[in-house]
Request: fold
Amino acid sequence: MAEKGKDMTSSASSGASEKKGAETKNDKKEKKIVQVTPSEEYDLSRLAEYSGHTKIFRYLFVAERCKKFEAEAYKTAIAALKQTQNTHVYRKVFEQLGDNLGPSFGLDQTWADSVDKKAQQQLDRLEHELETAKTSLIKESIRMGNTELGNFHYHRGDMNSALRCYVRARDYCTSGEHIIEMCMNVIRVSIEMSNFAHVLNYVAKAEQTPELKDKATIAKLKACAGLAHLEGRKYKNAAKKFIETSFDIGHNFSEILLPQDIAIYGGFCALASYDRQQLKTVIDNPQFKNFLELVPSIRDLINDFYNSKYASFLDNLEKFRLDLQLDLHLHDHIQGLYEKIRNKAIVQYFSPFVSIELKTMAEAFKTDITSLEKELSRLIMDGVISARIDSHNKRLYVREVDERTTTFDKALKMGSDFETHTKSLLLRVNLVRNDFIVKLPRNEKSEFQHQKKPNN
Reply:
C-alpha cells in the first residue's frame, strides 16, 4: 500500500513506489508511530479474509502499532510474503526485525535468491515477447504483452513499473472490455501508491465506457471512488459512493476492500457529513442495508444517532476508536471524523430547546461542564450553532433572531444596491451621450490589436 508514514517498504527495485506499512527514505523526518492497545473484541484473524498485498500490509501495519499482536502479525505477514514474489519487502521486514521472532522465523536467503533468479528469467522472457509483439505490429499482442509485464511488476512490488506498463497498454485497447480491464489495473496500482487523484480519473474513464454492464465491476468502481474521496477527506462524497456500492461486490474485491470495510467507512463518513434526514435514507437504503447487516454495531450506531439516543451512541462510538486506529485506511481520519460526529450530535441535541442547563448536556455527553463550555464556545465562534452561554447560571440559550428587523435590513440593503447600480448606469449613459470616451493613442491601439489577433 502507498506510503503514509509507515515503517516498511514494498518496492521491489530501486526507485519503486512507497507503500503503506513500508520503510521510507524519509522515515527519520516522519512522526513517531503511536502504539495502540485495541479492545478485547478486536479479532486479528479477520485480516486473513484479505488477499494479495493488502493482506500483507494490513498485518504489517498492525504489527508496527500493536505490541499485543506484534509477533503473531509479523509471522503471518512473513508466511504470506513467502507465497509471493515480493522479496524486497521480505528482506526489509527482517532488516527491521533481525532475530526477534526466533530462529524458526529467520531470513530464508536461499528462498529469496531462488525467487529473484526465477523472476529475472521471467522478466527477460516477458520483455522478449513484448519486443516480438511490437515487431509484428499486432495491437492485441502488444496490449497483452504490456499487461502481463505490468502484472509481473505488480507481483514483485514494483508499482511504478507496473503503472507504466498498464498505462502503455491503453494505446492498444481495441474494445470496451479492454479499456475496463486496463482501468481496473491502473486503479489497483494507484491505490497502493496512494495516488488517489489517479484513482478518480480512471474510475471516471471506466464508468464512461458503454460496455460497462457487469454489476460487480460497477460496484468495485464505486468502492474505489469512495476510498479515494475518504483519503482526500471529502467525507460526504465518500459516504455517497460507499452507499451507492451494490452488494454484488461480494468478497471478490478482497485485494482492496472487504464488504465490512464498506459498511464501516460508509457509516462513519455518513455520520460525519449527513444531516438527520439524509441519515434516514442511509438506514432505509436496501443495498447498503446488506453491508450494515455484516457489521451490526455500525447499524446500531447510525440508528442511535438518528433516534437521538446519545448515551448509548457515545458509548458505542468510543468502543470503535482504538480498533479503528489499526485500520490501514481509516486511522488517519479518526480524530477528524470523531470531532465532526460529536459536533453534529451537540447541535442536534440542542436544536429542540430554547434554553438548557449545561449540567444536563454534560451528563448526556459524558463530560464535565468546563469542557462542554469550551466545546460550545468553539462551535458558537465557528458559526456552527447559534446560541449564547450564560456562564454564571450555567445555561445555554438559543440566540433569538428578530425576523422583522432582519427582513427590514435586507430590504434597505437591496434598495441601496439598486440605487448604486442605477447611478452607475445613468453615469455610463451620460458619458456615451456626450461622447466622453477615452481612446487609446494610435501606437498603443495598433499594439493592442496585434496582441489580440492570435486569440481571434
